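Tutorial, part two.
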Amino acid sequence: MKKLLFLITIIFPLLGISQMKPTNESMYFDMTQGNSFFDEYAIHNDNNLNTQLSSKELIYLPDSLYAYNNFFAGADSSLSYKMCYRYDSKGNKTEYAYYLWKDSKWVGSEKEEYVYNEKGERTLYISYVWDNSTNNWYGKLKQSFEYNGQHNKTLLISYNFNNTTNSWDQSYKNEYIYAENGKINKAIIYNWDKLTSNWTIFNQLEYQYTESNGNTSQVIVSFDKTTNTWNNTSKLDIEYSNNKLNEVRTQYRWDKAKNQWIGVMKYEYAYDLSGRAFSYAIYSWDYGLANWLGDTKSENTYDSNGNILLIASNSWNNTNKQWVTHEEVEYIYNEMGKQAFYYRRVYNSLTESWVNFDKQESLYNKDGNASSCIFYNWNSTKSDWEIGMKFYYYYSAHNLLAANALNKSNSIKLYPNPTMETLYLESNQKVSNVPIYNINGIIIKTLDIDKGCNSIDMSNLNPGLYFIHIKTADTYIVKKVIKQ
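Running the prediction step on this input gives:
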């Protein structure tokens, strides 16, 4: 029997729960760098969609989404598009396909396929686009991956599809080399030479790290084959203050003409004692003024359970050189603690008042899974809400416990869960550097797990949801913990 699932892929970016921090890796595009919600599901094998995953033999994974629009037409609504998903026996997403509703039938648009090894690491990615002339899929991009024993990617090979030969042509590859601490040391980028049928070095990058008083500076230098020298390329400085409750990440590029670092972007974070970001600001470098100018700033409010209640966004006024109110998003939760509504309002500086913009309503079934998601737009003429789109997710039952390689997590036991003060962790092996993340993706503490029973003090953590990430030689385990 199919269940319905919430349109969480759209909601997550609005929530601001897990803000992506900037990276500074100037390498060819890697399709595994950006994870969708479903990728995160495959990694964690546990999330808000099924809070009792570990205690059920059957879990429900999304298999399709149907979207409806045109609510202003003569008919009530019409189909717009659908997205379909497939999984392997371990719960890893193996296929994603996107279809458009045209002329009363489904027409393909794009499709992706994924292959994993026994450790759950993605080893192959293939993307396709729909050919209307042949009514079939044809290749667009293919990438293969290899990893080391610490699950770090060591090799990427990228291919482009040749429509003439109807085959894949090698395009480029990246090799990654890591230090003992797991940080990347070097990246070598190759291009495929069709004339010689060999790989030729296109660029080499070295990563240099400097740490002082808990702060980190990462400099990337590239090799110039013409001068046979290493030259500065980019830099990322990470600075902490106030016991790491404040964080500033600054990106720079190297200006050869001026022989100095020039600012690019700056990100400022402020966290509460539970590691939740309550303030987040972005600045860009103004080359004319040689100074930082504000772009956007968000201030977040949470409830006692760690749910976000309000995101207040500000924009930068270049004339007054200060932040000005821009918009706010309010979240309302039901008795199950699930998000039921969000309302977005924009600030009218002329009338000094808030104006409705859009809202979203989510309905849930008795199991706590959302049954529908409806988006509304505000009609200022009618002073009323109008439906913009409706989304329905369907998902199917999967029995993963028997075949899932991640069930090696059974060798890791946590109890009591939920917990109020002390959490006990039992392991059949010793594992070092085990991080505990909060819902914002911030590391709260790092553990060294001994073989046997370990006690973890959770008394100083605010109530909420936490994730313990455990990497062993042959698997990657994520355990969810609820602090009451």
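Residues 169 and 229 are 32 Å apart (CA to CA). In part three we will examine how such features are distributed along the chain.
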